[in-house]
Amino acid sequence: MKKILYFITIALVFVVGCSKPQPQPKFKPTVASLQEYETPKWFNDAKFGIWVCWNAYTVPAVGDWYARNMYIEGHPHYKYHLENFGHPSEFGYKDIIQKWDGEEFNAEELVDLFVEVGAKYIVGMANHHDNFDLWNSKHHSWNSLNYGPKRDIMGEFQKAVRKYENQGIRWGVTSHVERASCWFQTNKGTDENGKYAGIPYDGNNKKYEELYLPPDPNGDVKPTQPSNAPDYWKKNWLARCKDLFDNYDPDFFYVDGGVPFPGDDKGETGLEMISYLYNQSMDRHNGENQSVMCIKDWYKKAPKGEWGYYWDGIATLNLERARLPQIRKKPWQTDTSIGDWTYVKNGKYRSTKEIIHELIDIVSKNGNMLLNVSPMANGKLDNKAFGLLNEIGAWMKINGESIYGTKPWLTSGVGDYRIVKKGNDLLYLSILNVPESNKISIPYIAPQNGKSLEITSISILGNEHKKVKWKSDGNGLHIQLPEKIEFKHALVIKIKAEHFENYDETPILKLFDRKEELTQWWKNQTITKTNSGYTTVTCDAKNNSWAIKTDNSLVEIKDGNEIDLGIKAQDVGANASGIVYVDLNGSVFIHTNHHLQWVDFPTGIKRITHKSKDGKIWLKLPGLKAKRCDITQTGTVWVTDQNGIINYYDDLLWKPLDKKAEDIACGGDWISPVAAISNGQLERFDGTHWTNLGGYDLKALDISIENEVLVTLNKKGNVTLFDKMGSIEIDKNEAYMDVSCGSKKGTPMVLIGIK
């Protein structure tokens, strides 16, 4: 009996040991579950990554949206294609892919260079909006093993990066294909003019439908995420993402926007993708998620999810070519590039100094920089890109300790100074531009009265052999730099102290007093005051101004002269994208300055237009009666309707928000902020919620082209300036009718309507 029990016990141990249950996934595909995500520590320490955006569009080398634009008659890329390759009915994007062989691509050489430059994570672009995969894709035959290079680009990159795994270098991928089902629909068109009129582009050929995609069932052709993605597309997209995770094990992933998909899906497919990524990482790292997911907060552009959804905390915030104005407690990332997003023949690159300054600023605010570098079609970097990277690497070898593993201090610094900490006894002070006197005073590094920071040493990175003279007192830290100090791009001072906790908080708090900075901002504006007799004024980023007279006539103002447009209006707004006005009946009309690729407008019999006296064509946006209006830089129109409810125009529809307001304003940035006056107070829209910024008895506002300063008027006509950190009153003794922000000959301008 004992022997039987013994063998049963051994058998049970063996069975249990061999059939170890799989750990339950920590993350579920819900917002609440995913908000348990924390950005992995490796990412917060890494600070600097290099990204490779490389694809078949480097063959023409005129822009990364070539696959879409070559099918838009009249577009510069269409013209280039016609002249260099032929008509897209005969020679299409499929043929561009076949011309791309990347014969000199060497992943090891590139990764070796990026590590030498100082990148702590290296990222490859797995696919773009053109629906072509750069890996051995199990769910899409149009991939780089079957066509073009005939190589597993992501696999080669992954192998090269993993060689440095013991040095802490991480591997990541990005995917941009979620848009393709509508973005790439231009290939279904035909020319409307010329000898090829009516001849279908090759995207209509069902033989190539896997690459070119079926026609969208909703006729959706816009370049954002599809309004309502077909089921087949959501399933295919998710399968391709999971294939990447299963076979290429990335530590970092990114989609070009918010969480896919809007419409009926409401982001559910995207949430499933994110939970799968985190859970796969947990399975491979003993229950710990080490994968970073980055998403963009483009919900500010269109909060119903047209650019993808954003829920704070489910992933790491990513900003495209943008920075935060102050420290963020949670880690974040800026993705940017040395120039264009892809290699462009004779393209312009940014300077090394500009890139390093941006990196220093981002790191001081708890962010990372992911810097894109794009090879030529053959897989090699051009000499300018290679030289630029070597310059960045030279600076990082000397100053990298002030970047990697640092944390924000009490302030990120102001002006030409940025500051970070490492541990409790070390500060790094970066000087972006050294004063001619070589004297530096930092008032916010000061001890409390009667105490000492007990600074033990101050040295300059790369110049440790040179003695630095300094003094610490109640007025701050005062440094005299040595003579003939070598300065290239940015100088970093290393400050060691025993008791930084003895800091004086008064000068730090003063940094958040916006009086001095906002007053200076106002002084830097070109203040243009109109003649009396205008109830409403507006201006744009192109030196143009408009006004509504007391008799409701809409006029354009040029060189102080009025041009009557023959229009009666109750409100008008302008931006680089165009002009919008509300007529006396509440109808909304728009005149666009150029083709607006981000917004769809009525066509065919639904397209109602009229021409103003100066020849401008104005398109009616039907379906709503409005009172106030404005327009973003990308062409989204925002209004308050006749009940005061805020609406924005997208997908040929007016979409209401749960907010009443007396006035509405849009900023001049690509990701335009929106603000409103509600019950006499200023409120800023952050995509998912409104933030009350205060104010009293306000009546009008606008948002500056730069810096996102909100300029408001109260009912007395006095100006108050707001930004993300505070507000001040300006011109208390002046009384104005209306205010607008724009630019004049490239200089920021505020247009004021006087009583």
Automatic annotation (TrEMBL):
Transmembrane residue ranges: none
EC class: hydrolase
PROSITE patterns documented for this protein: PROKAR_LIPOPROTEIN
Domain Glycoside hydrolase family 29 N-terminal: from-to ranges: 19-401
BP GO terms, sorted: fucose metabolic process; glycoside catabolic process
Domain Alpha-L-fucosidase C-terminal: 422-496
Family to which the UniProt record says this protein belongs: Belongs to the glycosyl hydrolase 29 family.
Annotated protein name in UniProt: alpha-L-fucosidase
Source organism of the structure: Lutibacter oricola
Lineage of origin: Bacteria, Pseudomonadati, Bacteroidota, Flavobacteriia, Flavobacteriales
